[in-house]
Amino acid sequence: MQLLKGKTALITGGTAGIGKAIALLFARQGADVAIFGTNGERAVQAVLEMETHRLTSEQKFLSFLVDVAKTAEAEQAIQQVISAFGKVDILVNNAGITRDNLLMRMTEEDWDDVMRVNLKSVYNMCRPLSRIMMKAKSGSIINISSVIGLTGNAGQTNYAASKAGMIGFTKSLAKELSSRGVRANCIAPGYIETQMTEVLPPQVKEGILTKIPLARIGQPGDIAQAALFLGSDMSNYITGQVLPVDGGMVM
Ligand code: NDP
User: Fold this and answer.
1) What local confidence, expressed as pLDDT, does residue 54 receive?
2) CATH of domain 8-243
3) Contact of 96 with 13, CB cutoff 8 Å
């Protein structure tokens, strides 16, 4: 299948984990792909991996070193993407971090860092790109939220607030852009095996597993499949929605 043939996708945090899995699947489906991240070595590696997944010789894969929490830096990099590709059809806001602690012990820095990287980045990316997508009268914005944004979690007030914030942002943006054919949706992943979750203690991981009806930990590819659906024309009549991809954790 070539579900994304002729489309250009921009994926923040495409250098690792879920974002990289999305980049590789999009490459396999025929898309041109730009990824944003801050780690140069991982960025080079991700582009090399995309090359091995290419469907046609015309496809282009580029990485950009960008801190998406910084407004001017993000805007400048978006301009570079437009210069290189001419357009962006699919934006995946996936870059994210955790700085977990109980609220009583949470520093202002840990609060601000999570809000900047997880939520302000979405503003930084969507503001310039929604203008471009509206002019093109098409586009799909996919924001990677979390089931924690739906349920909350002790020790994650900052993270849950940022992920719930993404949901409100996405629904509002979907209402602003829908008349011009631009869609915006969230994916809410459950527990996915990446460097973000590998730091959890074994007993915490086992505890989470008991709460997953499908009885397995999710893989980055599980989220990539959902992103492919929301990025492709298969979901043309879907906007403003939150799709949990969590093995049934939240139902
Ligand atoms: P990883 O830690 O594996 O990857 C995070 C990605 O974000 C990396 O590519 C990293 O790139 C990038 N990133 C972090 N900070 C910045 C920044 N300031 N500017 C640009 N890029 C940045 O995490 P996951 O793949 O697990 O998570 C991806 C998304 O999915 C996150 O938003 C996360 O909250 C969400 N999620 C994950 C779940 C899980 O169980 N894993 C569950 C629910 C949601 P680099 O290192 O190059 O900067």
Assistant:
1) 95
2) 3.40.50.720
3) yes
